[in-house]
Structures are given as C-alpha cells and as structure tokens.
Amino acid sequence: MRLRNPLRPWVFLARRPGRALPTAFVIASVTLLLVVVITPGNTFRSTLDANLAALDVFTVVSPARRAGFEPALRDLLDRNRFAERWVPVKALWVRYPAIIGEGSCPLLLARPEEARAVLDRLGMKLVAGRHASGPEPVLVLHEDVARARGIGIGSRVGTLVDPDDIIPGSFEVVGLVRGPARVAVGIVGAGVLASMLHGRLPTYALIYPRPGLKEKSDAYLHAARDGTAPAFQIIDAAYARTRAERALKNLPLLVRFLSIATACIVSLVVMLLTLLSFQSRLPQFAILLAIGQRRGRLLRSVTLELSMLAVGSWLLGASVALAGLAVYDVVALQPRGILIHVWDPGAIAASATIPVFVILAGLAVLWRGMAHVDPVSIIQQRLP
Amino acid sequence: MSEPIVQARDLWLEYGGARSVRALRGLTLAVEAGTFVGIMGPSGSGKSSLLYALAGLRRPTRGSVAFQGAAWPERIAHGSDRRRSSLGFVFQEPFLVAHWTVGENIAVQQTKPNAARIQALAASLGIERLLDEVPDRLSAGERQRASIARALVNDPMLVLADEPTSCLDTDSGRNAMSVLAAARRKAALVVCSHDARMLSGADIRYRLEDGTLSRDD
C-alpha cells in the first residue's frame, strides 16, 4: 500500500489535471502575452547602450562656443596626465530605422592614420571589406547599422545620394565591423568638395585615457571645466546616459500600468475559476470538515495547490514567451539590425505580479468560501 | 456509574426562521463508554439531527451537548482536532473523496499516517486488498466498509452512525453492522436506523418520534 498524506497540494493537481487546466491556461497565456509585450520595450535601451558604448572607452570634448580648439584648450588637454593622448575628429550621426522611429550611431571622421586606431581601441573587428584609407571619402560601418539601413560594401551614403540624409556629401561604405559599440568611422578624403563640405563641421576631441584611468581622466576634465579654463563641453558616458534616461524615463510608467492592469484582470478571471473549482469541491470539503479536519489545514492545502498552479503556469508562460522571443529575435529583429534583450529581468518581474495577484485573490475566495461552509447542509443535499 | 462519553441535556434543535421546524424537543441522552445505543425512528423523526448535534455539527437551539464533559467549539466550520481524533462518524452515504485511494481516505484522519494500523483495520473489515483502489472501483458495500474504517482508524471514544446500512441490501447491511460493532473495540456506538433489524445487537434501544426520545424495551 502506498500511503501518503492525501492533502498534499500536488495530489489534486496530479490526479485531476483537467480541473486545473483552465486556470493554468489563463495564467500561462496572459504571462506569455505580458512578457512578449513588455520585452521589446528594452530595444530602446539596448539600442541606446550600443550607440553610447564608445563613451565607455573614450570621452569626447567639444569647445562650447567655438568651432575649433584654441591653444589654451589644447594645452589643457595636453596637461591631462591620466590621458594617453587626444585625437581631433569631426562627428556626425548615421541614422537608421529602429523598432519605432530612428536610432543614430556616431560617425567619427578622423585622419586616415587614426581611423583604424579608433576601431581597434573600441574592440571592433573588421568582418567584411577593408579599413578606411585613401584619398576618397569612405567609411567603415557597424554591420548591424548597415543591415538596418539595407546597405553593404560599395553602397554610398550622404546628402548627395539621399537628400534626406544628415551626412554631408557622399561616403562609400568600404568595410563592416562587428563589436560592442555601434559606430561608424570614416575619412573625409582629400577632394576639394569633401574639404568644402566637411571643413566647417565642428571639431571634437576623443580623449583616450591611460589603461584603468578613465574615471580619473574624466574627473580631471570636469575639474578643469568647472574652474577658470576656457568653456568646453564634456560628453562622457554619464552625461550621455543621463540625457538618454531622461528620454526613457516614462517607459517604466507604461510597463507598470500594463503589468498591474493585466494582473488585476487575470486575478478576476482566476477568482471566478477558483470559485467554480471551490464550488465543485464543496462536498469534499464539507465531509472533511464534518469528520474533524480543521479548516486551516484544508485552506492551507488548497492555497498551496493554487500557489503551485499559479507559479507553475507563470513559469510555463514565461518560458514559452522567452522561447518565442528568441525565435522572433533571430528570424525578424536581427536581420533588421534591431537590438533586443530576450532575457529581460524587468519584464519577468512585471509578469511576476500575475501569480502574486492570483494567489492573493484566490486566497480571498477560498478563505471566504471555507469560512461559510455548513457541512451538514451540504451532506444533507447530497443524500438521496 | 462511569462518566458518559457524550451527554445531551434538554436538547432542542430548530431549523429555519419564521416557519421553523423543531427537529428535537427537550431530549436528554447519556451514552457511556463501550455501550451500543440503537435509535429507531421513521424518516424525518430527527435521528440525523440528533447525531449531528451529538457530533457538534449542529448547535443546539436550547440545552447542551457535552463530549467527554466539554462542549463542542462554537465555530463548526473551523473543524476540530478533538472531533477528528475522538469521534468517528459513519454517514448514510460513504462520502469518500473520489480522487484519493481507499487507503488515503482512511489515512487523512490520522495526524501521521500509520500503515500498519490501517492495514489491520482494513483486514478486519475485509477491504485490505482495496486500499490502493479509488472509490469508483468499489461496490456500495465496500465503500461503506471503507467509510467505517475511516471512522474507526483513530480508535475513537465515540462512533456515530447515521443509517449506515441504507445503501446496502439486508445481508450486506447486517454484515456491515456486525463489522462496525466488532471493529469499534471499546468505543461507545450510537446507530440511528429506521430498520429495527439492524439494531438487534444494541445494548440499549430508543425510539425517536417527533423529536422526542423514549426507551424501546
């Protein structure tokens, strides 16, 4: 004889799976829906992080009110003993389609001998074509950005190709790179037209810190800017992220609203299902109460049943959602250069409100139902 | 004279509001340890109401019920460990939980399931080979035996049985009564039945009519 305590919560779930199925289906499918709806929201942050990743490696300094670097500012940058060196560049943006609207990754126009060094410093690897060199205006582009724009080696970008573009002139794409930072690096070239088009672009300085001294280098720049030095702007990771966070600060409001509204609706549905399930098991509870089982013991058993069901269904729904998102990422998003974190702790945490609300709502139904059971009335109704 | 296991004093039980029905009318009864009390009466005479009141499942409108000298808890729906450990109730229908095995239906009454006790009891009731079966696979008589085992598994002080043979034919009913009487050991036994033949082994017999109890000699 296999003798086990029959009030263990999984006994009912294992032996009457059909009765638990509607609740499990509701919880799992709504969890799936919520995770699938919330997770793509991280594409904004993921894209932003990739576009700003270069600022984790170097800091950008720009003269605040002048187009060029006056000697005093050059001198200030030269005196930064935490920096290895600094490199003047012209900076633009490469726009590309994002999941909603457009993203922009930096395009750094450097001297030919510096173009490759920028990419090496960022840990970027050439995956197609060649590095930027020669007398013509050319650029090397992150492969994701190229994919998102639908361009490749030999394509040309710029206002001379597409008047809506924001890159002056015309640049040929000669190489594609892969790596953590979404960036494009190009050279202006030696032509008269290119010099005319790009000569008046503002100049920036890329400050290459010594290994492990980026924070100190940034601190030096901040201290110098806040003192009596010529006015200049520091664009470091903290500054850029603060600006970006401001743009995304209302996103959590939407996520919270979605998760709480969904959890409330699911809880109401599950409350109804729990009530129906409780009603169908009322004779069982009535008999057990009549033969002396304590209400608390029965309540604990059915609450654990509901908790296991809610958590299990939530795990199932979240797992299916993650698997679906992973497939969607490979099939639809990656080919369009759209970044997404399939495993998004925020989305999972938001969906976790569902089992919590379900358990609380179910507990209220069970507690109220169990408190009002009259065993004798139910037994007498069941008698022939 | 020993202390009664259960004692009802001037017990009144009314149901309903304005058009209330008086199920029991000032009934007094004391059941001592080891006694087999049989209560006969026609349908609607208040037999079930009396057993529910003795078990603490119905609160008296007036009067009192004391089990081992103490009243039952006020909140019936809260259940009671005392009822589970000291009292066995055999209902007119077996009322076994359908998705539990017979063994589990019996074991649920024990704080710690005791396989040896359950097997011994099942053997005395002739259902030892059915312990791993679910109730749907049992005959009516086997299910009633299982419900008797559930009532007796904790060696209760008092066993109450409400028409325990009503779903059985005469022979099976007699058989169920004999196993109930034998397996109860030293427990006091109160059996209500409309069939006098089922109470032939009772030490004391009462007749219950219109909520009033009288000795049936």
Notes on the structure:
The complex is a heterodimer of chains A (384) and B (217). Chain A has 384 residues and is of the alpha+beta class. Chain A has 2 domains: 171 residues, no CATH class; 193 residues, no CATH class. In chain A, 54% of the residues lie in helices and 16% in strands. Chain A is built from 15 helices and 10 strands. In chain A, a hairpin with a 4-residue loop joins β2 and β3. In chain A, α2 runs antiparallel to α10 and α10 packs parallel to α14. The longest helix of chain A has 39 residues. The two termini of chain A are 33 Å apart. The model of chain A has no long low-confidence stretch (mean pLDDT 87). Chain B is α/β, with parallel strands linked by helices and 217 residues long. Chain B is built from 6 helices and 9 strands. A 6-stranded mixed β-sheet of chain B has the order 5-6-7-3-8-9. In chain B, α6 links the parallel β6 and β7. In chain B, α4 packs across α5. Chain B is globular, with a radius of gyration of 17 Å. The two termini of chain B are 21 Å apart. The model of chain B has no long low-confidence stretch (mean pLDDT 87).
Structure in a nutshell:
With 384 residues, chain A is an alpha+beta fold. Helices cover 54% and strands 16% of the residues of chain A.
Structural features:
heterodimer, A: 384 residues, alpha+beta, 2 domains, ten-stranded mixed β-sheet, elongated, B: 217 residues, alpha/beta, six-stranded mixed β-sheet, three-stranded antiparallel β-sheet, 6 helices, 9 strands
Please list the strands of the largest sheet of chain B in the order they lie side by side. Answer: 5-6-7-3-8-9
N/C terminus separation of chain B:
21 Å
Tell me which oligomeric state these chains represent.
heterodimer
* Proportion of helical residues of chain B: 25-40%
User: Over all CA atoms, what is the radius of gyration of chain A?
Assistant: 31 Å
Tell me the overall shape of chain B.
Answer: globular
The topology string of helices and strands of chain A comes to HHHEHEEHEEHEEEHEHEHHHHHHH
